[in-house]
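Narrative of activities, Objective 1.

The group set out to show that a structural description can be obtained from nothing but a protein's sequence at a throughput compatible with the screening campaign. Below is one input-output pair from the validation batch, recorded exactly as produced.
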Amino acid sequence: MRIYIFAPHPDDEIFGAGGSILKWLSEAHDVHIIWLTDGRAGYRKAGMSGDLEDNEETKISEDQLAEKRLTEAAASAKILGVKPENCYYLKFHDADLQNHIYEAVEKLTRIIRNADRFVIPSNNNEHADHQATHDIAIKVAEKLQLKEVEFYVYSIYVPLKAEGEHLIKVKVGNFRFKAYEALKKHRSQLLTKDMQWQSKWVEGKRRDYFGVYTLADKGKYYNF
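Output recorded for this entry:
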């Protein structure tokens, strides 16, 4: 099975599906990760609220942070075991993805082939980059006419309201420890207080939860 993970920012691949990525790889699935943005805005909110560590590592420009976060994404993917040729960096500016939806769709329709599953952020998402990533994934599937592709929807910032046949629980077990090691490669984000406590949540996460849909379900459910 060919699986594409859509990550709005470097580290969302871990928060959304870290343990599952490891499990799918252990089952010999062909896993690809797409990072839509460069993560350059990672210190904006934390810096304004005083939740950013004050040291030389955080006193860098947004261009420098973007370069650093993409390098960290590659290191994290290596820990997970995703092949370098299966990693894609679209490099749209963090916090500006909603203004580049059609450009992103054009790029991805030239990248994605024979997809069986898209792993994407939830709909109804107040985080603009996450909502844009959701919308982009849908448009790509429509343009490529992937009528049978599975959408595994992960929930960050919004509740997962999937029920019955639309709710999938992936038991990740001890994969969570390796997922945590991969998350630690995103070192720049661990310099914010918010990420410091959220990272521990990944280490203790024994199951990943997804809402599962197809294109025919679009607009019928809260998360899709």
